[in-house]
Each structure stands twice: as structure tokens, then as C-alpha cells.
Fold these 4 entries.
Entry 1:
Amino acid sequence: MKRTSARARHRRFAWLPLVLCAAIAQAAAPAHAPPLEQWRGQPVLLNYWATWCAPCLREMPELDAFAAAQAGKRAVQVVGIALDEPASVQAYLARRPVRYPVLVEAVDYGQAGSSARYGNRLGVLPYSVLLDAQGRVLRSKAGPLTAAELAAWTAAAR
């Protein structure tokens, strides 16, 4: 029997936290959030945020512009994951909509949720993770992303 290394198992199941997050968020997510399965095979930028996080809210217009500029087969799909209350997220997005899907992950205040799986052990927000088309982590950052960083991350994903 062939043994699989822990690293190989981690790579194989890199999408599992997203699937679990989607299952948790299915009823609470805004109606425009499509299923995660459609992004398999393409790079994904996960952005963990909350409505009470001022740096997160300042970063969202930059992410929205980045998401709108993505096109083609190798485009990076932005997915927001709000570590917040569903009602707060829906109210915020009603006032300030974004052009990328947003899921809601129910966690206790200060908990990292599924972002811990991607290296955010302290639960810092915003927290962004770039996954390649196979679901492997290419980059991660605690704190807001700049336009220059988004451009560099896009190049790394291609």
C-alpha cells in the first residue's frame, strides 16, 4: 500500500475549507454567490473580511476594480469570505455592492475560521490568499492588498 505524505494530502484537499465554507454559508450568502465548484481549474483570490473591519472596507474598492478587470481563461477569480453575521454582510453589500461573489462564514468574534487553514492562525483581517488552478497556496497576506500587489499576484498565478 502506497503512503501519501501529509503535504500531498494537504494539496489534494486544499479546496475542502472552501466547500465547507460554502455549505455553512449557503443559506446566508447573497443571492449572487455562485457555487465554488465552478472555479476549480482557475486561480482564485480569497479575501477574508468583516463589516466591522475598517481596513477591509477600504480595500474592497480596489478588489472590486481588480475583479472587474479580470477576463479570459486564466483570469483570477476574486471570492470574498465575510467572517461576520449574515445580516450585517447583506446590509453592507446592499449599500456598497461589489462585482465578485461574497460568502459568509459564521465564526465567533476573533476566530480565524477557514482562513486558519491558509496560514491565518491569529485571525487577522483582512487576510488574502491566492490559490493556483490546482488549489495550492501561491501567496498570502495579512492586511490590505494594494493595486501593485494585486498585479504581482496575478503574474504569479499565470
Entry 2:
Amino acid sequence: MSDPKQLAQVLSMADKALEKAALDLRSAHSAVQALKQQLTQLQNYRWDYVKQAQQQAGTTLQASHYQQYHHFIAKLDAAITQHIARVRQAEAAAQQRQTLWQQAHQRQQAIALLLEKNRTRAAALAEKRSQRELDEFALQQFVRRQR
């Protein structure tokens, strides 16, 4: 049987590790949400720019303006592609944090269960010892009365 104080310390350490893993997981999820929001803003900006350019399509555009428009759209598309990659990386990091949290949670639960089993076992042993002492005392009382 493990020392209950040592096991309680290990449980405390596991609790702290679980809290840190949960904090890291929340942080990773927040980063994913922020990146997704930025991506949506970038995509909306591109859409608005294209829509505005289409509205101006009826007017005469100089070749240089037309070229600048396509160049800018290409830059926006490249930025969107890069941002999508960043979102995917952040999602992968969040998934790793999820796995780490699950492992920390399982470890903490296992230690808590072991500690509870040890406490239950110790209580049962103490109860048996107490019952034996009471039985011994009762037997001694009986023997004294018989004399």
C-alpha cells in the first residue's frame, strides 16, 4: 500500500498538470477562433473588393488599373491561402493540446481512484482491527466473569 501523504502530493501535482493542460487547451482554442475570424475578415475584404471592381466594370478602365486590380487580387488570394495554412496549423496544435489534456485527465482520475481505494482499504483494516480489539475485550470480560 502506498503512503497516503505521498499519494495525496502526487494527486495535487496531477491536479496542477490538469489545470495547466486545460489552460493550454483554452488558449489553443482561442487562437484558432481568432485566426478563423481574421480569415473571414480577409475573405470578406476580398469579396467586397471584387464586388466593387465589378460595379466599376461598366466604366472604362485603363490597362494599368486593370493590371493593378489583378495583381492585388492575386496578393489577397496568396494571403488567404497562407492564412488557411495558419488556421490548419493552429487546429493541429489545438488537437495536440486536446490529447495532452485527455492524458492529464486520465492520469489525475487514475491517481484519485488509487487514493480512494487506499483510503477505503485503510478504513476497512482499521475497522477490522477495532472489531478484533472489541472481540478480544469481550472475550476477556467473559473469561473474568466465568472465574
Entry 3:
Amino acid sequence: MPPLSNYYKVLQPNKQLKMAIKLHCLADVCLIPMGTGSPSISDYIAKTENHIRKSTKVKSTLHSAGTTLSGEWTDVMELIGELHVLNHELGVLRVQTDVRVGTRIDKDQTPKDKVDVVERKIKDIQKTEA
């Protein structure tokens, strides 16, 4: 297997390949290490989540089927790439990731804000049904 450094490039500080995308996004990410020899992948997910939490640019919320990432588009996508590299460094030969990304330009909104709005609407519905 080639060294993992073949799969990513460290840029010199004064050189960029392209402009960073400054658009804020929320990304729901479900990373699946494949071929680990066990149906349990929690050890890999714990190490993956630990790496996510070290990020200073991207906020995260762990849930039962993945993690929601919140930050600038370029930072979120870069972190997802880092997660693949991390899992390959852990010995995983194949990594599959499902990503669902949303952007919004009319207002700032956190993952918690989105849940709170729905919870409030459910309470309103329940009041009218009572």
C-alpha cells in the first residue's frame, strides 16, 4: 500500500490551489469504515469523533447515526477528507461516507436552532389538539 502522504498535499503558506468557499453550511455526515473484521465500528467512530472535536474551525453535534458539522464549506469538506485519511491511517482499507449538506443565506442557524423550531411547532400542534 502506498504511503498515506501520497493522498494529500501540504500547501506552502503563500500558494493556494483555489479560493476557499466562505459559504456557511450544515453537513450531516455518516462515515462507515468497511472491512474492519467486526460488525462493531465504535472504536473507529470514537477516534473519528475525537478528531472532529479537536477542530477549531468546525462545530459538531454527535447523534446516533452520524455527526452534524457546522462551519464554512471549505473547512467542513477539508475535515471530512481528514477523517478519511485518519481512518486509513488506522488500517481501514475502505471508507464510505454519506454526506447531506445544507446552506442558507437569509439567516444564521445552528443545528440546535433547527431542532428547537420543530420542537416548538410540535408543542403548538399539541396545544391545538388538546
Entry 4:
Amino acid sequence: MAVNLSANAIPAIINGDVDAKPLVQVLDIATIQSTKNSQTERYRLLLSDSVSSHHAMLAAQLNEKVKTGRFKKGTIVQLLDYICTSFQNRKYFSSLLLLNLIFD
């Protein structure tokens, strides 16, 4: 099944587009330990829109999708709800709150 990713969606999101519901691909997933003495693991993703790539943090309520293998490298997802913030003069997707798995 061929899937067309949403080319140039990542720069649009970084520049403030909160209404896009782009298709992106997960290129990498890294486990991050929480810094607040919590046992909660967090996942940092590297996402691609076929033109650009960018890091994003997965919301903790979606961790189970990674742990069960439903969400892995190569998975195509539609971003439905996300927040983009600045930190140390760089823009980040601070949380991916809602995803629709398209193809894994």
C-alpha cells in the first residue's frame, strides 16, 4: 500500500499551523527517562514528512502503543493533536497528543 506523506508539513507546524492533520513517518524512537524523579518513561520520535524531519515527544498516555509494538520505526501516522513549543531557541513538537495509525 503506497502512502503519500504530507510534504513540507513539519515546517508548517513549526511555523504555527495547528490545523494540519499531516501524514508522517516515524524514523526513530528513543526512550527518555523523566527528569522529575518519576518512573514514567517518555519517548522521543524522529518524524519525517518526506522532505523534512524533526524530533517530537510522545504524550505519556500513548506510551502503550510503543510498548506493545503497534507504534515502531517505519510506522505511518496521522498527527491529529499536537503542541509545538520553543525551548532554548529551538522549536519542538512538545507532545503528540493524538495519533491515528495509518500503516505499520
